[in-house]
């Protein structure tokens, strides 16, 4: 383990400002708003704020106030935050982000959880300050298990994830049930087209239909990142406005009645997240993970586990209303559900948008099963 601080060269910030200043804006079909993707009026306002008001150095200093480290595991360098609680009975808790967010997803939850948990918040390989070595969820789970047990010395730990983090945490509960004691998920994965529907409940089938409808209307990012991520990488790595519009469009698709800023916890939070992708040049490698997930599914490497494989690891589901709604029976296809709660508000980025709600669920569920005999 080596202590790590973020130190962005001033020349990188000046280059970014120049690119923002020289943006070549597209036109927009009249009256379409968000229906064709990132809204032009919103993007102009966001980029103007980014260029003239947002201050990276403020947020860099806040990030550097967190205890960050790097370590190499099986040839892959992992970046992670490790916040040790002053509580001698604190439970080790691994928090796993998804896309298009990063380890920054959990920064609001740290003060809410640090009395009850030792917190470990890694950057998935290919994201942020970890190596740009994209891996499948199963491979990442293996690295994270070694991080928790061999690098940090925990005999056992718990985990929480959403989005891509759901797949990683599910793989931890399946393949590392000897050390993973309880998990919490904010979604339960999505149909792959390989499911056996013959004995599926009507609620499960409805969830599959709802997911298919969502992919048809909002899933352009999924299709492109799963098939031609390299084509996309040139634009995301070269244009900060292109990167921002790609991320903003995805966030807006799950925002419900909220604004993009609110759905991601605030405008500065949104831009800090985008900055981490921009400054580390990991937009392309992060997109490639979708390609690897599809290839792994086709090869049955990460095929959904059975309940028999996960029976030892109790799972809690915290389902927020702006997610695609699924029944407990869908989650039970891959994890051992012991708690299923529909939350009163919030969406896909609940850790940023509704940190208190998610933190309370973790505090309610995880310690009970950690101490369960």
From TrEMBL:
Top-level taxon of origin: Bacteria
Annotated GO biological process: epoxide metabolic process
Keywords: Aromatic hydrocarbons catabolism, Hydrolase
Gene3D superfamilies: alpha/beta hydrolase (3.40.50.1820)
GO molecular function, one term: epoxide hydrolase activity
InterPro entries tied to this protein: AB_hydrolase_fold, Epox_hydrolase-like, Epoxide_hydro_N, Epoxide_hydrolase
Sequence ranges assigned to domain Epoxide hydrolase N-terminal in this UniProt record: 1-106
Active site residues according to the UniProt entry: 163, 290, 348
SUPFAM superfamilies (alphabetical): alpha/beta-Hydrolases (SSF53474)
Assigned protein family: Belongs to the peptidase S33 family.
Name of the molecule in the record: Epoxide hydrolase
Species, as recorded: Cohnella cholangitidis
């Amino acid at each position: 383990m080596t202590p790590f601080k973020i130190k962005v060269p001033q020349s990188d910030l000046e280059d970014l400002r120049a690119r923002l200043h020289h943006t070549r804006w597209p036109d927009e079909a009249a009256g379409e708003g968000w229906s064709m993707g990132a809204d032009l009026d919103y993007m102009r306002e966001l980029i103007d704020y980014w260029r003239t008001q947002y201050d990276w150095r403020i947020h860099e200093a806040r990030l550097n106030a967190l205890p960050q480290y790097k370590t190499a595991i099986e040839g892959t360098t992992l970046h992670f935050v490790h916040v040790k609680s002053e509580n001698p009975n604190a439970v080790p808790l691994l928090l796993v982000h998804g896309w298009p967010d990063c380890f920054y997803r959990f920064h609001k939850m740290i003060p809410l959880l640090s009395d009850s948990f030792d917190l470990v918040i890694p950057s998935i390989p290919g994201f942020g300050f970890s190596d740009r070595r994209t891996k499948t969820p199963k491979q990442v789970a293996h690295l994270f298990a070694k991080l928790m047990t061999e690098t940090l010395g925990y005999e056992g730990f718990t985990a929480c994830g959403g989005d891509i983090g759901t797949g990683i945490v599910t793989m931890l509960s399946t393949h590392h049930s000897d050390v993973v004691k309880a998990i919490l998920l904010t979604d339960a994965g999505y149909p792959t087209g390989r499911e056996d529907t013959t004995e599926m409940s009507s609620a499960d089938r409805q969830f599959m239909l709802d997911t298919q409808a969502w992919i048809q209307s909002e899933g352009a990012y999924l299709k492109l990142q799963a098939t031609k991520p390299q084509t996309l990488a040139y634009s995301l790595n070269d244009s900060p406005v292109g990167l921002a519009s790609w991320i903003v469009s995805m966030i807006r698709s799950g925002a419900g009645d909220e604004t993009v800023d609110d759905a991601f916890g605030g405008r500065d939070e949104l831009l800090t997240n985008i900055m981490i992708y921009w400054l580390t040049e990991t937009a392309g490698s992060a997109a490639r993970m979708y390609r690897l997930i599809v290839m792994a599914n086709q090869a049955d490497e990460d095929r959904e586990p059975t309940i028999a494989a996960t029976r030892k690891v109790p799972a809690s589901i915290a389902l927020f209303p702006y997610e695609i709604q699924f029944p407990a029976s869908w989650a039970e296809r891959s994890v051992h559900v012991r708690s299923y709660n529909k939350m009163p508000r919030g969406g896909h980025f609940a850790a940023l948008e509704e940190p208190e709600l998610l933190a309370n669920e973790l505090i309610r569920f995880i310690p009970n099963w950690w101490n369960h005999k």
